[in-house]
Amino acid sequence: MASMRHTNDIGLPFMKMHGLGNDFVIVDARAQAVAVTPALARGIGHRQFGVGFDQLAVIEAGDVDANLVFYNADGSTSAACGNATRCIARFLMEESGKSELTLKTARGYLLARDAGDGLTSVNMGQPQLNWNEVPLAEELDTLELPIEGGPTATGMGNPHCTFFVENAEAVSLEEFGARYEHHPLYPERTNVQVAQVTGPDQLRMRVWERGVGITLASGSSSCATAVAAARRGLTRRTVQIELDGGRIWINWRDDGVWMTGPTCHVFSGTLTPEFLRSLA
Q: CATH no. for residue 47?
């Protein structure tokens, strides 16, 4: 078992990575465990007083290539974070020389592969389509919820609410996302997407992440939106999605929802003991 690192005394090394502008602070705790508290996550996540991130991801040792734990900017945890999983998979593949990895998350065991041309693919598992799996507060048909706009509910290890609209750019996402994140039908809150069909098997999507706000991209939201579009007959199961941060490809196969896109390791650094003590 890894020993606990006393971060307040020695500082805390980290990496800053992003997938399509969906940005992460990643802590490698395989050699020495790191105790992440909500206060620590919120402090690191602050874009003025800390480093700033959409999610904090911690890499832990385990029975597979790595265990991953995710935190939102408000200090809450998330069972799934697709783009962070892709970023970490790319880092671990470059470190190990492997082209295929198995990663464990609260969502389950996820397979990651080098897709070539600098792209990384992750199988995010099968979507959760039943009301109690998403979860919703009551038994409902997840294909079209009794909410204005008739959104689709999907679970990808975290809950999603996808609205299909005529013009995704015209939606005031800051107000819209905040309103539906806390909708009573979603007892654990929800990620909110607005999506527009822009061509055959092509979507334009914007996203509000629960516990974070507007983000430039979201892997699990992309998966949920692709699944919702296929279920509603708007697209086939393989789609290209244009996000604020760039392009991602989703393929809902028999073995799960595969997500493929670019990643970037921006820089590495160390959180100082002074900063860490200020959060204690």
A: 3.10.310.10
